[in-house]
Automatic annotation (TrEMBL):
This is Androgen induced 1. The keyword Hydrolase does not apply. The keyword Ubl conjugation does not apply. Belongs to the AIG1 family. It is found in: Endomembrane system. Keywords: Membrane, Transmembrane, Transmembrane helix. GO terms for cellular component: endomembrane system; membrane.
Length: 238
């Protein structure tokens, strides 16, 4: 039996994301006042995705609790739709985008922080908030994947969805540059057009890889769990 019920964990994670978002939006940074506001940053978009996802998880838990034993077919139908939406969001957005933000941010930060998170930002964003945006996303999504089985969509539709998201965000970044004359991320100012095309193409490929990684990880976790349960059942059957 789990030390903390998964339903309680989801509520705690949702509240933490709400706190992070509120604290982030309360910061008066110059970049928040320019074209696109916070929505031009993938980190902020990811925080919204994670908050919405865990909100759906909590709503699913509440709906499951309310419909348990009711025998109401309409309520059960609505619950199945919620579960499908929850699973789709984890597969297509929450896992690949969340892992991408954590991995790419810290890799570039380790190479040269000025390229992704200039030291100037330390005057606006406290360290705990930085980790809330760029670190805790990974353990939170892994906890969710470990505590509940999620049915992935067909591989073709899943990859098409994550490709659409990736290309859509790249076009948005390019549009912000077209309007303002400045790139959202400082390192894009220091590389040529060819390198930018290569970078954008590489990020799209990485997003697709992370989608596949999530699919494999989900299957591995729950196939292993199933095998362990079957092993436990064998002595009883004998």
């Amino acid at each position: 039996m789990a030390l903390v019920p998964c339903q309680v964990l989801r509520v705690a994670i949702l509240l933490s994301y709400c706190s992070i978002l509120c604290n982030y939006k309360a910061i008066e940074m110059p970049s928040h006042q320019t074209y696109g506001g916070s929505w031009k940053f993938l980190t902020f978009i990811d925080l919204v995705i994670q908050a919405v996802f865990f909100g759906i998880c909590v709503l699913t838990d509440l709906s499951s609790l309310l419909t348990r034993g009711s025998g109401n077919q309409e309520q059960e139908r609505q619950l199945k739709k919620l579960i499908s939406l929850r699973d789709w969001m984890l597969a297509v957005l929450a896992f690949p985008v969340g892992v991408f933000v954590v991995a790419v941010f810290w890799i570039i930060y380790a190479y040269d922080r000025e390229m992704i998170y200039p030291k100037l930002l330390d005057n606006f964003i406290p360290g705990w908030l930085n980790h809330g945006m760029h670190t805790t996303v990974l353990p939170f999504i892994l906890i969710e994947m470990r505590t509940s089985h999620h049915a992935y969509p067909s591989r073709s539709s899943g990859l098409a969805a994550i490709c659409t998201f990736s290309v859509g965000y790249i076009l948005w970044v390019c549009w912000v540059h077209h309007v303002t004359g400045m790139w959202v991320y400082p390192f894009l100012e220091h590389i040529g057009p060819g390198a930018r095309i290569f970078f954008f193409g590489s990020t799209t490929i990485l997003m697709n890889f992370l989608y596949l990684l999530g699919e494999v990880l989900n299957s591995y976790i729950w196939d292993t769990q199933r095998s362990m349960e079957e092993e436990k059942e064998k002595p009883k059957l004998e």
